[in-house]
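In pairs, describe these two lines:
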Amino acid sequence: MSLLNTEVKPFKATAYHNGEFVDVTEENLKGQWNIFFFYPADFTFVCPTELGDLQDKYAELKKMGVEVYSVSTDTHFTHKAWHDSSETIGKLTYPMLADPTLRISRNFEVLIEEAGLADRGTFVVDPDGKIQIVELNAGNIGRNAEELLRKVKAAQYVRANPNEVCPAKWEEGEATLSPSLDLVGKI
């Protein structure tokens, strides 16, 4: 079953965020856009490159009303230790959610049960708490925050303009399409 257009299931987690441990639940998501950025584990190889890339786009995402939550099955204490010991991770200013109970990873269907780790999954959640974008990558393939930013802009655009759709490779400011019988077979 696809998670698209489904509501985020209830959860409660502790995040390491800007030098503090903070509680986060599904209620924190309401009224704003959110990205859940699952990765396998702290102190690994591809993960810090992705998290650092996402940090490079975080200020722009925040201006767009988007909160970012990185999520792994590590504890919030492990997140703090990684933040304190890695130059790349030390620059992160978005919340790092801990999922040691595996509940959030199961809720988003990214848990690798036999390993107790999350797949590389990216989920964009709208202000109503519904999942609008799902992306899954194999563990050895890193993601691109620039492309994620483009997808969030497209999701926000079509939410604000429900009679339009964004074609392939759409960039902010470019033409969109208004679905109609006249377009069938002409694109």
Q: What stands out?
A: The chain has a mean pLDDT of 96. The helical segments are 46-63, 76-85, 103-107, 145-160.
